[in-house]
Amino acid sequence: MKRLILIGPMLLALTFPVSLPGAALAAQATTCPVRIDPASFASEARLLELAERQEDFGPRPTGSAAHDDYIDWLEDEIGAVPGVQLSSLPYEIDRWDGLATGLTVGGQNVAVAAPVPFSSSTGPGGVTAPLTYLPAGTAITAANAAGKIVVRDLPWSTVPNLLFYPPLLGYHMYDPGLTINLLGSDSMEAPAGADTDLKAAAAAGAVGVLEVSRLPHAQIEGMYAPYEGLPYQVPGAYLGVDQGERIKQALAAGQPVEAVLTVDAAWTPKTTRTVLATLPGVSEQKIVVESHTDGMSPVWDNGPLTMVEMARYLASLPVSCRPRTVQFAFVTGHLYQHLTGPGVREGGAGQLAAMLDAEYDQGKVSSVVVLEHLGARRYDAVTRTGGLPGLELVADPSLTELLWVPVSESTPLRELVKGHVQYWDVRRTAVLKGLSAADLGTVPHHCGFGGEGTPYNRHLLPTIAPIAAPKTLFSPRFGAEAIDVAVMRRASLAFTDVVLDLGTMPQADVAGDVTFMRAQRASGTPGCS
């Protein structure tokens, strides 16, 4: 079978041997597309409609009513695709619900942006204690925090752009407009840092933690992170920059400041589920296309929307044009990473990855494509006007965030992704070897893929995992407007073409060095911790 693949400026005709019946080969020769016809795929208007429908569900913490409703809706959408076979993987969790959050300082009410998820509950009465400000770099200890409510600035993470170019983590950078400063860097607020603070505060005997953002209340209201799924031993809450600055100024005046922090929360037994939608092909060996269903906003995550439309397109083709089965996995537990208990982290993606790992050597699995944050609009953190403290996020009218596409250890697989990214002009895309430094003593060498692709890569499955890092990610205050739908559509077309070509690509090329690494693992070479 021949497929035309764009590699740089050239179209190459590649012949892929595929074990198909003669009739199927004949059918493919006359009816199977060389590349997706964009007229056969969802329009920008359709994708925007889906994103707005997703936004209507509101924030979707794992196991919440909104999450359940969204899963039901996705199941209806994908279930309506002809030929799709539905199944599910249920999980029992204790859902955490923030019932009420409040703060008074010196008897005055202070607006709270959000509780820290999985905080210890104070009950409706709250906890009363003096405040203490411990700036970054100051350890939280019993000497400075016991019996107090700790005020702490959220950290920002900064990443040099050079990392995403060869020969470091990069394999190929597609930025024809030269919009990325090679010697520059990018940064975003890292609310995951609250995890370290709350654990340290509990160990020090503190009675609460207030995490202060550099962004205004309106832009972080409802922020949801960290999302481990394990209970913290102290209550915590997020404050916008204005509220935080007033508290820090009061403390800087040298007078004792007492506060009442309320995080009233409850844990409720609940069942959540991963939905599997299987579209049979000529072979039972499957390509798995995955994204998660729990999140705070449409950009977190719009992968399922692309998956529904990809399934519609693939189902419109004759079965003979699907040499491999395609399974769409709508995974739960992204916002509840310890889905099955404290000893295992990676949410539903890690659970599915372990199952696919066991099936791979039986020839039942070909590869995994994980879709996250497609078309994420770029927002810049700029100084607020009018002398106000901190920063605010402002959308760039012409740019999306850099789309990272880690691809497992296969040069043909990386070239495949590179070609389709270029053909569909998915600008500001970095095809990567991984998103963590290489360790030649482990298999795989790059343990981190930046998101849901990580567990599949760690389980030594051939993996393609596009993901961006939008500054709007953790906040539900940014809706469908945080997605550049035109770019989302081009990325959807590119990765639909990737799935088409994975159907015919020889498994040896799909796997690349993964085959050797799986043999190394079987011989005792350590995997990623």
Molecular structure report:
- With 529 residues, the chain is an alpha/beta fold.
- It is built from 14 helices and 21 strands.
- The chain has helices at residues 22-31, 44-56, 65-79, 142-145, 194-204, 217-220, 241-252, 303-315, 347-360, 411-423, 453-458, 485-504, 507-511, 514-522, and strands at residues 2-7, 10-15, 85-105, 108-109, 114-115, 127-133, 149-153, 156-160, 170-174, 185-189, 208-212, 236-239, 258-279, 283-292, 324-331, 365-370, 377-383, 391-400, 403-406, 429-432, 463-464.
- The strands form five sheets. Strands 3, 4, 5, 6, 7, 11, 12, 13, 14, 15, 16 and 21 form a twelve-stranded mixed beta sheet that branches. It has a three-stranded mixed beta sheet with strand order 9-20-19, with helices on one face.
- Helix 8 crosses helix 12 (485-504).
- The longest helix has 20 residues, at 485-504.
- The protein is globular.
- The two termini are 41 Å apart.
Q: What does the secondary structure layout of this molecule look like, with pairings?
A:
Blueprint: E1 2-7, E2 10-15, H1 22-31, H2 44-56, H3 65-79, E3 85-105, E4 108-109, E5 114-115, E6 127-133, H4 142-145, E7 149-153, E8 156-160, E9 170-174, E10 185-189, H5 194-204, E11 208-212, H6 217-220, E12 236-239, H7 241-252, E13 258-279, E14 283-292, H8 303-315, E15 324-331, H9 347-360, E16 365-370, E17 377-383, E18 391-400, E19 403-406, H10 411-423, E20 429-432, H11 453-458, E21 463-464, H12 485-504, H13 507-511, H14 514-522
Helix pairs in contact: 2-12, 8-12, 10-12
